[in-house]
């Protein structure tokens, strides 16, 4: 292990040195002002490859030098952070730490977890995320499974022994050069509900339910929402929350920094934190049905957070007004590649962050420079001086590394 620890410590030392550069202190300040809605600046930019997509190409398996399976995970995280530092001149903030999601069991539906064997009390096999499509099964065509769901109290059960083992191993490996943090998995705090329900019911059947089984749908969503709220309350009461006002993925993209001082972990409350929900599964559903079947239930949990983020890849063109109505704490709104740039700017204004997501296909599947410049021009015309704008290049499943760097250059040229 001595040689493998040496590899980790070399990378950790590089990370600590890089994180101390003045550019990151300035980036941190800019995110604080941006997220606090106190200063309109040039748009903030973050290049955010998918963990199981673009990053596997940028930091391939063959680039790793350790052989211990757990140290390889730590090595990968360190190399990703250093790659970002060396190649992307965006507004990301490097910190002298490496963050991991806690091992454990979320008893709702954990998207992308192929090893899951039950969700909401229903025996089922989870589905992993890959480059291939998969079929959504209807587990709620059985009345017994509906009963199981309605009686299930959702929870997150941390694997405390595994966490202790990893913390001890990683702390020894980095030897105090950087910090190692284990935090609640993203899915535990998300209040979307729909992505979990669609994996229990199937998307096509869920669309029929809006017309054919509205009472059942209300019953299920009401239980899921209230159970998630009870979980949030337990996490807060048991001091299991963590401060996500840092360089952490916030909502469907964006860093979480705020002007507020960092709190001791034992005193973090939901009112300090960013929360998130989206309605991608309802992209083609009318505003009236979003109002009836989604927002009231999502708001039960999301309004407990200090700042709410809403939306991901769905267009929200005719739904902004009701989002502001249901979520008075809204702070970040996603403007997806399928959103109207101008309508979004008019509706969001200075009331929340304009979180624009360019279509990654323009950048990653043949670099369409002319089209990218035209799109950036539209964003500038619509938002300059009017919006707290950020550019989040995400959903990068595959990529040409040079194209990502060239995109940063175009954004700086067109947006400042």
UniProtKB/TrEMBL annotation:
It comes from Candidatus Faecousia excrementigallinarum. InterPro entries: UROD/MetE-like_sf. This is Uroporphyrinogen decarboxylase (URO-D) domain-containing protein.
